[in-house]
Design a protein that fits this description.
ornithine cyclodeaminase, domain 1; Rossmann fold; alpha/beta; 8-stranded mixed sheet; about 325 residues; globular
């Protein structure tokens, strides 16, 4: 990280080019393993709910030892943006170098969030799902539906995809685009139950506030990536779905403070705090056991961590420097 005043500026297209999904999955495995080894720092995110409208501002700082870097993701979250054809997450990841604390990169946060979130689910699926899992259900039709399909195709031999979303027009557009892009038919279905029943992989990437997946629907041996809810008052899975599953999280502290899927199941008495088996990073480094049987239901609850954003931004910077790519600006 040289150059006293040059800062890489990476827009969404640059992030997609410099951080492809297969590489991002590797980067996320490394970042979560470092977290499990206590070689990174990840405070809880700070969220400012705006006094006007339905928007919020989130600040997520994090630092890692190797490769050394620290930074912060600053994003606005406006759920109504979908109706305007805009991403709900708007912002930037600011990356600093470790020797003098200089700003070295400004990376589009929307695309980082899109790829790293799905890449973490890819890492969880590779670690927890059955090797022969090939029937995928996707609940949601937005950006995370697109990137999660890509991640699942990268780690499992997916042969069948069913997708559901409450907005039929968006669902059909997603299914058509994904079918053309990946050469695998994505079937748009009318009810979440139709998507989930019989699936060996389930990815919930919706904006639902109430459960859209019920435990009785989950097939023996399936793996679930629960991604869409990051609020303690909202969830995509009912208590029975969480109770039935061997539960893994990205970070215990985050899950016990921010995850409605976990907290509301606890409030109902479906589970206790000890229902969390391990953090995903603990499974990756071998200090915790993942799946213990072919018929076991496994669940990974993802909230998104700042160390993932820092690691992704560092990987973008490294790739840009290696390839002589990207745009730089001089701030001083």
């Amino acid at each position: 990280m040289s150059g006293a005043s040059e800062v890489l500026v990476a827009d969404a297209a640059s992030v997609r080019r410099l951080l492809p999904m297969d590489r991002c999955i590797e980067v996320m495995e490394e970042a979560l393993s470092a977290l499990a080894r206590r070689r990174s720092v990840n405070p809880l995110r700070s969220v400012l709910h705006l006094p006007f409208g339905d928007g919020a501002l989130a600040v997520m700082p994090g630092a890692q030892e190797a490769p050394p870097a620290f930074g912060v993701k600053v994003i606005s979250l406006f759920p109504g943006n979908r109706a305007a054809g805009l991403e709900t997450h708007q912002g930037v990841v600011m990356l600093f170098e470790h020797e003098h604390g200089r700003l070295v990169a400004l990376v589009d946060a929307g695309e980082v969030t899109a790829v790293r979130t799905a890449a973490v689910s890819g890492a969880a699926t590779r670690a927890l799902a059955r090797p022969d899992a090939d029937d995928l259900a996707i609940l949601g039709s937005g950006t995370q539906a697109r990137t999660h399909l890509e991640a699942m195709l990268a780690v499992r031999p997916v042969r069948r995809v069913r997708a559901w979303s409450p907005t039929r027009q968006r669902l059909e557009a997603f299914a058509a685009e994904a079918t053309e892009r990946h050469g695998i038919e994505v079937e748009a279905v009318d009810k979440p139950r139709v998507a989930v029943e019989g699936a060996s992989l389930v990815c919930t990437v919706s904006g639902a506030r109430q459960p859209i997946v019920h435990g009785e629907w989950l097939a023996p041996g399936c793996h679930v990536n629960a991604v869409g809810s990051a609020l303690p008052t909202a969830r995509e899975l009912d208590g029975e779905a969480v109770r039935r599953a061997r539960l893994f999280v990205d970070r215990r502290e985050s899950a016990l403070n921010e995850s409605g899927d976990v907290l509301l199941a606890m409030r109902e008495g479906a589970i206790g705090e000890d229902h969390i088996v391990a953090e995903l990073g603990e499974v990756l480094i071998g200090s915790a056991r993942g799946r213990t049987g072919p018929d076991q239901v496994t669940l990974f609850k993802s909230l998104g961590l700042a160390v993932e954003d820092v690691a992704a931004a560092r990987a973008v910077l490294d790739a840009a420097q290696r390839d002589g790519a990207g745009t730089t600006v001089r701030l001083a």
